[in-house]
Specification:
heterotrimer, A mainly alpha, B alpha/beta, C mainly alpha, A: mainly alpha, MetI-like fold, 70% helix, flat, disordered N terminus, B: alpha/beta, D-Maltodextrin-Binding Protein, domain 2, 2 domains, five-stranded mixed β-sheet, four-stranded mixed β-sheet, 20 helices
Amino acid sequence: MTLSQAEVAPVATAPRGLRAYAQDWLPRLVLAPSFAVILLFVYGFIVFTAYLSTTNSTILPRFDFVGLVNYQKLFAQPSWWTALKNLMIFGVLYIGICTGIGLLLAIFLDQKIRGEGVLRPIYLYPMALSFIVTGTAWKWFLDPGIGLEQVVQNWGWETFTFDWIKNSRMAIYTVVIAAVWQSSGFVMAMFLAGLRGIDTEIMRAAQIDGASALKLYRRIVIPMLRPAFLSAFVVLAHLAIKSYDLVIALTGGGPGRATELPATFMYSYTFTRNQMGVGAASAVIMLAMVASIMIPYLYTELKHEARS
Amino acid sequence: MHKRFLPLIGSVAGLAMMAGAAVAQDESVEVLHWWTSGGEAAALNVLKENLEAEGVTWQDMPVAGGGGTEAMTVLRSRATSGNPPTAAQMLGYDILDWAELGVVGNLDDLAAEEGWDDVIPAALQNFSKYDGHWIAAPVNVHSTNWMWANKAIFDEVGIALPTSFDELLAALDKIKAAGYTPIAYGGQPWQDATVFEAVVVSTAGPEFYQTTLNEFDQEALTSDTMKQAFESYGKLKDYTDANTAGRDWNLATAMVMNKEAAMQFMGDWAKGEFINAGKVPNQDFLCARFPGTQGTVLFNSDQFVMFQVGDEARDAQLKLASAIEEPSFQIAFNKVKGSVPARTDIDDSEFDDCAKKGMADLAAANEGGTLYGSLAHGHGAPAAVKNAVYDVVTRFWNGDIDSADAAAEELATAVAAAQ
Amino acid sequence: MTGAAAPAPASTVLVRAAIYTLLLIFAVYYLLPLFVMVVNSLKELNEIRQGNMLALPQQVTIEPWKSAWSTAQIGVQPTGLRPYFLNSIMMVVPAVAISTLLGALNGYVLTKWRFRGDTVIFGLMLFACFIPFQIVLIPMARILGMIGLAGTTPGLVLVHIVYGLGFTTLFFRNYYAAFPTELVKAAQVDGAGFFRIFGRILLPSSGPIIVVTVIWQFTNIWNDFLFGASFADFDSLPMTVALNNLVSSSTGVKEYNVHFAGAIMAALPTLLVYIVAGRYFVRGLMAGAVKG
């Protein structure tokens, strides 16, 4: 195959036969099933849920329209406001810290580190563990009676306290600690894949031009990782919104309802409290919140790509 | 799986019957439950073996977690997909909610045949029946207003078991002075509610309990009596240790067993823990009603709800229901579980002393009309209201509500909103 | 940067020492809970009750492991986790394979075969990643019931494929976006068709992203509890439901040692995937793809 750097004439000027026509439609045909499936099972269900939020569904869906009563009930719940506040705190810290740590570790590991083959799985493995049990391990770890506080005190620092998990105000930060532990390794892997996909030619050219390492990274590498940032953000935001198992295993939503998050709220109202209408309303609100962040972000990212 | 193609199999079975041959009965039952730990699972296994002796295969569908919350979620999904299990473990008002959906079966013939109406307490029947028809087979009766005490500590400090709330406070003071943690407490919403409802009965009397936590009369909920109940409940906090938040109930029981704490207020499943650890009633631990609630029994009962299954599965389902109420199973299961049999005509000789007391209390309360459904365990109100109460009680306990007065007001509002 | 000469300043001893130290500190943060779990899974129960969670076992015992595998109480039968592993594997392997393949094809289409509206379609597929699973449960149960897949492994596989598509498409799409389009166009001129280009040009260079995608999908599907519990019957229950039964029982002594042994056991297949997949995590598959 002779490859020339010159622009090749676009396919459109090739003779339009049946084969070319099929080639035009083949990509769309390949994409179509996935898209159709998502339209039905995601957007169809979202519409269904939105409809449910206007009904008086209790234990299973019911179809008697009651207007926006469920939304009123929703926002009258103190635990819903707690959940939203917690989501802000947790979301910002979790996404920020994971991205920071992930990027840092990926860049470091990319520096021809000896033992990369050992370190990489060490950073990655926490994601393999189901939170149904690692929640217990972290619960122990953070428990003042048997965990870190007691261990450090036994080592001699009598005044050391670390009872965040039992403290209504601080408990949400323990959830951050455990969640960051679980996911930052995967973020690192995504950035590492992105780094490994960067053409060495470009980097070498910049080095020859005399760029220092820091500038190299700031001006060239990190901008080229924009798609990886998008992936990382999506993954982390998804985990932040859906963290149900983690919270239940670690704090059970407590102390009291101090670590309530929208995911636990939604589950509890839909299934435990037999108030599916309110649960559906909370789901709609959450999706709206996510959309309000993701849509602008996606728009700018995809526009940016189209331009570059 | 026979349940998925009901119409098809129904007609096939019909044809087979018409052909005069013995119908191919699907002699298997799929049972959804959350009894997955050592003792109780072994006890349930007795039922499995009894059924196998009758030629019925047991297909186990265990889903642990949250005292049944996960199992109930799974049940919704199964029912919606048209594939319900033969029977599912359920508590209290959930049973009635499901019955309202019209997916449960009918056990009237079996109940009449075996005389369930006579031996199962009336208060229990409120949950085993819907619209007058039997839909569930109760397995046991738990009671929630118990106190479990470490005998050694009580002997050491030199106090007798308190019988009123004031006596309780006095005893707690003495224990605290002697250096032990007075109350082993687990800070989870359902545990908060369990203790709270006992306090209500103790300080305000059983009728007040019924009016407020079973009938939710708004005036009673905002009355001074309720405010005092909250205050009394709040007083208990000084007698717990600093690490109560999130503690599982069986860890609190372990504290009592290991002489770290003097007493725990918990349902009689706690007794199951003591027994399984080899402790002996009245030697190692003491059992008594929550001080001030003597004569009242707040109960909850695990029942197996029978779902509508095709005709070919009906025979096995009826055998299951019958086997559940069978005295030998009732004895075997309840000995391990800590609860008392759901039938009042069972001989108590094989049970330990605390269980005997429980059975006697149950019979007395049944006669005397002081057998009330436990709100904290789904027998006082449907799930929405129950959880609304949980919210307020746990917020109060955790200091998120300033005063007992505010708590009572919030309780009334929350309950109204959830109804 | 493997394969290239490292930029000179980064090689100063101090900087590299700092890098190694930081990497090591993080390694400790990640390993500590695992250490707690492993160490305590080898202790007797009373040693756990009395002791320090970080202390090494005084008496090492593998009983908890044997128990978790084959004798722990999961339901009425003390079967341990063993019977459920097969169910999980039969569900995970097809689900991961199919969703990854579809994601790769989708990403390929969305980046190399542009058409009007493809950005919107991508956006829609991407947003689908955020659907909370709780709202999926009831409608999906109804649909599975209608098509007759309720309570079966194929039904579960379908569910996992559907809800993995958003992610797999995202990963591959972003990766292929950085892939030089010149190569594709050149191949077209040479007469290669849609699938030929995919198979001969893109797929071989996709190592790192296949690794990432497979890791993500395998982990999520293997560790999923909600769908597994809701859409499976007694004979297709995945291992996570069994693990949950082992750990979340509401009564009885909490045998922490067995729980930890069970959890690590349950994670072993995923860890295996990580280790095997890691070998493909190398740069250089693309080196030389665009030659001067």
